[in-house]
UniProtKB/TrEMBL annotation, chain A:
Key word ATP-binding present: no
Name of the protein: Spermidine/putrescine ABC transporter permease
Taxonomic path: Bacteria, Pseudomonadati, Pseudomonadota, Alphaproteobacteria, Rhodobacterales
Pfam families in the record: BPD_transp_1
Organism this protein belongs to: Tritonibacter mobilis F1926
Superkingdom field: Bacteria
The ABC transmembrane type-1 domain, residue ranges: 66-273
Localization of this protein: Cell membrane
GO BP term, example: transmembrane transport
Main subcellular location: membrane
Segments traversing the membrane: 12-37, 70-91, 103-125, 153-172, 205-230, 250-274
Family that this chain belongs to: Belongs to the binding-protein-dependent transport system permease family. CysTW subfamily.
GO annotations of cellular component type: plasma membrane
Entries under InterPro entries matching the protein: MetI-like (IPR000515), MetI-like_sf (IPR035906)
Length: 288, 370
């Protein structure tokens, strides 16, 4: 009797997440998959086949954009980690009480503003008539206006900026759970700052590092706004290409195939990352 | 360097925090191979003292020498001391072997040599062949021994222990006391042990320093600290004691006549305590110094004998005791030997308490402070 009631409760609680998964994620993907394996022969004339996927591999622009997106995203993830780790370590281990809360909040405050507005902020700083350009000119370091937008560096800056919070938060959480006495024990046993970082802090923070990296990588790979705004027309970001297929070219079939390739790529990179770091998904997500 | 230096010397060690003095002019020596305990209530400054010895905090003033070499300004990773942390601080991301080998790896010892020495030290603490296990696969007592092995493999001059038995259950704690003492004898290393548990300190130590409010109240062997407490704090903190607030009515050499605030008269032979008539004192009397007798007899001459009624019997095996309410209304705790004829003692029985004037300790109330 009791177990029946608790089972009912379990299914009731499960229902929203199941609905969410089925209606908003699984069904659209099945639809997209069906579209992606339909080859267009003529108006309203379709044939099932993997033509859209082969088109991707036969056209260098497509797979090169694809590879470029992946490599840039990995690079952005690495940069975010390198920048985020010291920030997280400082917040988690070297500050106490109020300072900690304030610093943590300061990391979050930029995220109260929409991503679009924040990206425009970067455009104001970096464009030809922008703040940096004017500053360099007034200091006499350059003779004319400098365009700092519309290149890969600008994209990278934008990607790191938009995703660093998602690295810092899981890192602060895992580093917070590292007992200070472990670090002290490391010093006491003759460890140096580097060896303690390598043997004690990083192994402990590994689940946080991995979950932060997964989130940042996914966000970068799927980012549309930042590469388009900061990288311009030629940013060659794969999401931009999907957009073009769907909206400009009205080629939903190829667009859907691209969508699935992106899904496959991100899963593959995450899988490889987990294998390389010796972590499992359940361990990583369970702890952070 | 000669062997005449004690392993650890502290000279007028002071640690000021912004709002209070955590450690106040502490001086002591710990000779090679001895077990030294620092006993005090929480907040007495013993942890700060230990952290200064290990190097995590630097003293405001004073000197700290290990084997005759000053350690002021030497970082913790360069000091010949190792520390067993309160919660042991074993690295959960490493297996036992890597934990124990950590210090050796930092010194750049070769892999094969590390493996050999780790096995050796694990064997010495009675845990051979656990290298490959994870930390969470060991029991509390085993973790304790691994933590000690992790320090001892580095052959430190001094091993510091920060209440490592606090987290264990009672049975295991009793067992580990004996084991720690045996390990100390086995390694013949100087141990400095801090604790708030007097029984740990009394059982294991060669010498005990009793610490209160940043100062050392007394340093001495366990029996000295127990039987000849130097201050009222030591008398009250170490071991059980009946405490009476009293007033001296007359002093005749070292023989004092007192009357407690409850109104009981007593005679005390207080050698060393220079008290005059009219002064207020605190009297400490161990429960085991008091004898229960059924009737007052003539050979009680010179003893303090008073009639009373048993208020309650606290049976605790060999540590059983009774509280007796004496005729003046004061409560006295008396140890109850399990061999005597008092095994059947019950609440409400009339008894006499008897104790020798030399068995009580008394201290000037002004000196005792609170």
């Amino acid at each position: 009797m009791r177990s029946d009631a608790s089972r009912l409760g379990f299914y009731l609680l499960l229902a929203p997440i199941l609905l969410w998964l089925v209606v908003l994620i699984i069904l659209p993907h099945i639809g997209l998959f069906i579209v992606s394996i339909s080859e267009k022969l003529g108006p309203r004339e379709y044939e099932t086949g993997f033509g859209n996927y082969t088109a991707f591999f036969s056209e260098p622009l497509y797979w090169r954009t694809f590879a470029r997106t992946a490599i840039m995203s990995i690079l952005a993830t690495a940069l975010t980690l390198v920048l985020g780790f010291p920030i997280a370590y400082y917040i988690a281990k070297l500050t106490r009480g109020r300072t900690k809360t304030v610093l943590f909040l300061m990391c979050m405050i930029p995220f109260w503003v929409s991503e679009l507005v924040r990206t425009f902020g970067w455009m104001i700083l970096l464009r030809e008539t922008g703040v940096f350009s004017n500053l360099l000119q007034s200091l006499g370091l350059v003779s004319g206006p400098v365009e700092m937008l519309y290149n890969d560096a600008a994209i990278m800056v934008g990607l790191v900026y938009t995703s660093i919070l998602f690295m810092v938060v899981p890192l602060v959480t895992t580093l917070d759970s590292l007992d200070d006495s472990l670090i002290e024990a490391g010093y006491d046993l003759g460890g140096t700052s580097t060896s303690i970082m390598r043997e004690i802090v990083i192994p402990h923070a590994m689940p946080g590092i991995v979950s932060g990296c997964i989130v940042v990588f996914m966000l970068s790979l799927g980012n549309y706004l930042t590469p388009i705004l900061l990288g311009g027309k030629d940013s060659l970001w794969f999401t931009g290409m999907i957009y073009t297929q769907f909206i400009t070219r009205f080629n939903w079939e190829l667009g859907s195939a691209f969508g699935f390739l992106l899904l496959g790529l991100s899963s593959l990179v995450v899988f490889l990352g987990l294998k390389l770091s010796g972590q499992t998904l359940s361990q990583t997500m369970g702890r952070s | 360097m000669t062997d005449s230096h004690p392993d650890l010397e502290c000279r007028d060690l002071v640690k000021d925090f912004s709002d209070f003095k955590a450690v106040d002019r502490v001086s002591f020596d710990v000779p090679q191979g001895s077990f030294f305990s620092i006993l005090g209530p929480s907040g007495c400054g013993k942890t700060t003292l230990l952290r200064m010895i290990s190097g995590f905090q630097s003293p405001t003033s004073g000197d700290l020498r290990i084997k005759g070499k000053s350690m002021i300004g030497v970082p913790p990773n360069k000091r010949p001391v190792s520390m067993v942390f309160q919660h042991l601080a074993l690295f959960p991301t490493m297996n036992i072997g890597d934990n124990v080998g950590f210090g050796l790896r930092q010194r750049g010892v070769g892999k094969a040599e590390i493996k050999k020495r780790v096995e050796e030290v694990l064997e010495r603490v009675g845990l051979p062949g656990v290298s490959a296990r994870r930390v969470d696969q060991l029991s509390g007592g085993q973790k304790q021994r691994v933590a000690i092995a992790r320090c001892m493999v580095l052959e430190p001059d001094v091993l510091l222990l920060d209440e490592p038995l606090g987290a264990l259950d009672l049975k295991l704690r009793e067992h580990m006391k004996v084991e720690l003492k045996a390990l100390q004898a086995e390694f013949n290393t100087t141990f400095v042990y801090i604790t708030h548990d007097q029984s740990e300190a009394l059982v294991m130590s060669d010498n005990i320093a009793v610490m209160n409010k940043g100062r050392f109240e007394q340093i001495g062997a366990p029996h000295e600290v127990y039987h000849e407490p130097a201050t009222a704090f030591v008398a009250g903190f170490v071991g059980d004691a009946n405490k009476f607030d009293a007033k001296v009515t007359s002093a005749n050499g070292s023989m004092l006549s007192l009357v407690t605030d409850a109104g009981t008269e007593m005679k005390i032979n207080a050698a060393g305590a220079s008290l005059n008539a009219g002064e207020r004192t605190q009297v400490f009397l161990r429960p085991e110094a008091i004898e229960l007798v059924a009737t007052a007899t003539t050979n009680d001459e010179g003893c303090n004998v008073s009639p009373g009624v048993v208020e309650s019997v606290l049976f605790n095996g060999a540590n059983s005791s009774v509280t007796v309410r004496n005729s003046a209304g004061g409560l006295v705790k008396v140890a109850l030997p399990q061999t005597g004829g008092f095994a059947a003692l019950q609440k409400g029985d009339a008894v006499f308490t008897r104790w020798q004037p030399k068995d009580a300790r008394c201290f000037s109330a002004a000196e005792a402070g609170s």
